[in-house]
Fold this protein.
Amino acid sequence: MCASLRLLSVAPTLPSPASGGGDEKTLPSPADAEGMTRSSPAGKDEEILPSGANEGDDEDNDRVLDACMTHRAQATVRGFTIAEILVALLVITVGIVGIAALYADRVRQQPETRYQELAAELAEDMAERIRATKEGTAGFATTIGVLCDPKAEPTLPHDRAALQAACWEDEVERSLPSGLGTITRDLSTAKPTYVIAVSWSAPGQGAASYVVRVTPE
């Protein structure tokens, strides 16, 4: 319907026979002919009142044309809205995928980080004990054959140090996957130095260790 409104009705013009083609007469359209006078067979002109058909048709055409233009404008706006929604959904999807990837990477790294922190705490705890011990520090490096017994109360400083080291080794084993805690004495230095090593091996991450060197005062 909207396309048909573009076709304009033009009244054809024909040359007048009396003027030999010099003057042109416009043939009235069927609608306009109702508003003109026509001759009767008796030679008398009959006056016909003009009707408002043309004006009514023009108004109807204008209304239809306005409706078509409004529909096209709405369709264009609706198209832009859909495009904006699709772009927004794409941006949101990319953001969600990125957040999920970061979260998954953090979850994979979290156990390893926790093990490192725990190993550092265990090693530093034993280092503080060695620094605080004034006598019998050599017992920390001689835990062979010593069992952890929280109720035991050794009298000798050497034995008390060995008992503390044995209980600490058990704590490392319980706290870390495949955990192993060792205390060795390095006699190559001017003052005896104790090397505290905490090792573990988490599934899928391989072996790792945390080492601290302590020289008692």
Observations:
- The longest helix spans residues 53-132.
- Confidence is low (pLDDT under 50) at residues 3-27, 29-53.
- Strands lie at 13-15, 24-26, 38-39, 45-46, 180-186, 193-202, 206-214.
- The longest strand covers residues 193-202.
